[in-house]
Amino acid sequence: MSARIVGVVLVRNDDLFIERAIRNAARFCDGIHAFDHVSTDRTREILRDLAAEYDHLEVRRVRNVAESHRALEGYAGTATWVFGVDGDELYDPARLATFRNGLLAGAYDHAFRIASNVLNCVGLDVEKRTATGYLSPPGRSITKLYNFGAIESWAGDGSERLHGGTIVFRPGYDAGSIDNFGESMSWEQTPLRCLHVCFLRRSSLDPPESSEPSARPNVVETGMHDLSWRGGLRRLVRGRARPEVAYKREKYMRGDLVNVDASPFLTDEPVRTA
């Protein structure tokens, strides 16, 4: 089987950025699984329209985010790179187009995971095409690009895709088999870079942005990842989880505050790949 790239998107109420996030990654991927965790803003409508435009985009509405990982388990042991994209992650499509060729040619098969350069944004001016934020490194990279050819299996534990669970590695690989581009390349040099807009307003239903950057909790942190009757029963027994997101400031807001050219991430031109 030829190598391929499969995208996986899990969103809930991300209508301000989800279209751009998917468009920027669409031509990098040979197929995309998108999971809408019962959004109540325009996310569902946007995903439906994108699925009509991209025939390799499959959209499902789910009540339990664990379904997003179960859909990936069958790729284990195959020549597949799985690319996780959130509704607050805008990748550079032109860099992805160039990077795709090397990835599929096997240039990075030595790694189980690739981590890359990220700007954790506290400001994005679409008109001026500038972004303000903190670079990773020194912050932690949020890039989720995994080599499923390096593993025998990855059974989930009920949490979202590409998180938790039990991984069985093939010989020569382990959890430390990471190629971290940020350690050897700058923001200007890297073939894989992302605007992480986690500190910005992501949904039309979110309250107006305040002067103090804050990141909203994800569905696992709120304890609302499983909206089935079973999930409701567990919340009654255990008590609803409290959102704890202060750690995101520590994890993502490190180093100096910088400004970058956001034009490559906001292009409206289609990006073709070989």
Mind telling me the C-alpha Rg? 18 Å
The order of strands across the largest sheet is 3-2-1-4-9-6-12
- CATH topology term: Spore Coat Polysaccharide Biosynthesis Protein SpsA, Chain A
> Helix segment count?
7
Q: Which structural class should the secondary elements be placed in?
A: alpha/beta
Taken in chain order, the helices and strands follow as: EHEHEHEEHEEEEEEEEHHHE
Secondary structure topology:
Elements: E1 4-11, H1 18-26, E2 31-36, H2 43-53, E3 57-61, H3 67-70, E4 80-85, E5 89-91, H4 93-104, E6 113-115, E7 117-125, E8 130-136, E9 144-147, E10 151-155, E11 166-169, E12 178-180, E13 193-196, H5 219-222, H6 229-238, H7 246-252, E14 257-261
Parallel strand pairs: 1-2, 1-4, 2-3, 6-12, 7-13
Antiparallel strand pairs: 4-9, 5-13, 6-9, 7-8, 8-14, 10-11
Helix pairs in contact: 1-2
Could you please describe the fold and organization of this structure?
There is one protein chain. This protein is an alpha/beta fold. The chain has one domain: Spore Coat Polysaccharide Biosynthesis Protein SpsA, Chain A. Helix content is 21%, strand content 26%. The chain has seven helices and 14 strands. The strands form three sheets. A seven-stranded mixed sheet has the order 3-2-1-4-9-6-12. The protein has a five-stranded mixed sheet with strand order 5-13-7-8-14. Strands 10-11 form a two-stranded antiparallel ribbon. The longest helix has 12 residues, at 93-104. The two termini are 18 Å apart. The relative contact order is 0.20. Mean pLDDT is 88; it is low at 229-237, 240-244 and 270-274.
